[in-house]
Design a protein that fits this description.
Largest interface: A-B, 23 and 23 residues
Number of strands of chain A: 11
Number of helices of chain B: 0
Strand content of chain B: over 45%
Largest sheet of chain A: 7 strands, mixed
Radius of gyration of chain B: 13 Å
Order of helices and strands of chain A: EEEEEEEEEEE
Shape of chain B: globular
Distance between the termini of chain B: 38 Å
Structural class of chain A: mainly beta
Number of strands of chain B: 11
Number of helices of chain A: 0
Oligomer: heterodimer
Largest sheet of chain B: 6 strands, mixed
Helix content of chain B: under 10%
């Protein structure tokens, strides 16, 4: 069974631009969670989608948004990029009964904001 | 407020030795405690997880020990190998809430 895939793997953007990251979950998984990973803050939860609905949301500004499609694929968008948004963005999928259980992570998208 | 505190930040262990990583949590409502392993350039991979109704769970060389009264849990890696060199994260969650992660421990196993 194919794992979680994320595209693109690397991205360089300029401050003020916006960016869209994509995540394809494991087949059959209905929950997709997004995390931001930085050396200083570690892994921080952004949001979780289940059946196209946002089920949980972390403590990030409104510039960070996401959505999930009917095939469970998910996208996250960051508008008006700031230097501090440079990070590894990870998505994780699970069957969906409860969002945290048995989460499987993708390889991440490395975003660099200059 | 950091809900899951992980220690040590880094650890160097001789090949064949035991690696021990500790985590402490604050929220007594947490009911799921996984450990993740992350290699450079990869996403975290679920290693082993425990629920609070058991005090220990073993999978191969990896063991989680859980102390509910102390609100602590730990990962033991027996017969540590160079291939175990990675960053390890503990996490916790309750019910339908997202995972809360510790800050991570960078393990280096030297020959």
């Amino acid at each position: 069974k194919a794992g979680v895939t994320q595209t693109p793997r690397y991205l360089i953007k300029t401050r003020g631009q916006q960016v869209t990251l994509s995540c394809s979950p494991i087949s059959g998984h209905r929950s997709v969670s997004w995390y931001q990973q930085t050396p200083g803050q570690g892994l921080q939860f952004l949001f979780e989608y289940f059946s196209e609905t946002q089920r949980n949301k972390g403590n990030f500004p409104g510039r960070f948004s996401g959505r999930q499609f009917s095939n469970s694929r998910s996208e996250m968008n960051v508008s008006t990029l700031e230097l501090g948004d440079s990070a590894l963005y990870l998505c994780a999928s699970s069957l969906g009964g409860l969002p945290a259980y048995e989460q499987y992570f993708g390889p991440g998208t490395r975003l660099t904001v200059t | 407020q950091q809900q899951v505190k992980q220690s040590p930040q880094s650890l160097i262990v001789q090949k064949g030795g035991i690696s021990i990583i500790n985590c402490a949590y604050e929220n007594t409502a947490f009911d799921y405690f996984p450990w993740y392993q992350q290699f450079p350039g990869k996403g975290p991979a679920l290693l082993i997880a425990i629920r609070p109704d058991v005090s220990e769970k073993k999978e191969g060389r990896f063991t989680i020990s859980f102390n509910k009264s102390a609100k602590q849990f730990s990962l033991h890696i027996m017969d540590s190998q160079p291939g175990d060199s990675a960053t390890y994260f503990c996490a916790a969650s309750r019910g339908n809430t997202p995972l809360v992660f510790g800050k991570g421990t960078r393990l280096s196993v030297i020959a």
